[in-house]
Amino acid sequence: MLLNxxxxxxxxIEVLPFEIILNKDVLERDDFKFVxxxxxxxxxxxxxxxxxxxxxGNISATVQAQCSRCLQNFDYDCxxxxxxxxxxxxxxxxxxxxxxSTIDLSNMVIDNIILSMPIKFLCSEDCKGLCPICGKNLNNxxxxxxxxxxxxxxxxxxxFFKGN
Length: 164
Fold this sequence. Notes:
Blueprint: E1 2-4, H1 6-10, E2 15-22, E3 26-29, E4 32-35, E5 40-49, E6 52-66, E7 73-87, E8 96-97, E9 102-104, H2 106-116, H3 155-158
Parallel strand pairs: 7-8
Antiparallel strand pairs: 1-9, 2-5, 3-4, 5-6, 6-7
């Protein structure tokens, strides 16, 4: 995902609008892997401020996610606003590095996607999850498991708060 900023650096333009569409099946880095169900779209503007390139915009895509309760795959829509800085020198961890007249937006895009993901994916807020005994998806109907059994070691805790 390269962005040519030569006209911006030369001062020919003040704002560089851009739109980058990535048609891949998978977006991955290290331990993170995202299955893309739609093209990844990065839209924004770049501004040059004497060595510092400011890039603002939006990342949108639909990724495949797995529900943390029922383990079913579902479509998760990403719509992420970003505001990042790129410099020619490695100043700190809050800015990205660029060399020459092109900026590689790949790391910035993946970082923003990772940071915007929820800790726990849910297919819906009222997802019932799986039966802890038989493993049936309770969203598809109830099971016939008896849920009244209590581990005898914990039976005394059942009455702990009664009477208070």
